């Protein structure tokens, strides 16, 4: 019995691994069976409006941060460029 298990393990290790065909992106032969029978569930208007509002807030935040931080990130402005603009009239 142990000899058979060892022989099977050796054959399995020696044989090249074969990958079966995957039809996830192309559908395969019977893809038409499932695409016609499954209908997507429409979200309620509340979820659609909430998603649109959250997307608008997200883009507002991204553009706001880009307006204020992009020159610093790209190297056009440096933190030490504006040291004397804080109202100190006293020059050292």
Give an account of the 3D structure.
By secondary structure, the protein is an all-alpha fold. It has a domain at 45-72. It has 3 helices and no strands. The protein has helices at residues 2-14, 31-37, 45-74. The protein is flat, with a radius of gyration of 32 Å. The protein starts with a helix and ends in an 18-residue tail after the last helix.
List the helices and strands and how they pair.
Blueprint: H1 2-14, H2 31-37, H3 45-74
Region (Disordered): 16-36
InterPro entries: NDUFB2_animal, NDUFB2_plant/fungi
GO cellular component, one term: mitochondrial inner membrane
Supply the key terms.
92 residues; mainly alpha; 3 helices
Average per-residue pLDDT, rounded, comes to 76
Secondary-structure element string: HHH
- Give the tally of β-strands: 0
Q: Percent helix among the residues? A: 40-55%
Radius of gyration: 32 Å
Report the β-strand fraction as a percent range. Answer: under 5%
The profile of the biggest β sheet is:
none
Low-confidence stretches: none
User: What overall form do the CA principal axes indicate?
Assistant: flat
Q: Please, how many helices?
A: 3
Termini distance? Answer: 92 Å
Helix/strand/pairing category = mainly alpha
Region (Disordered): 16-36
Pfam family, one: NADH_B2
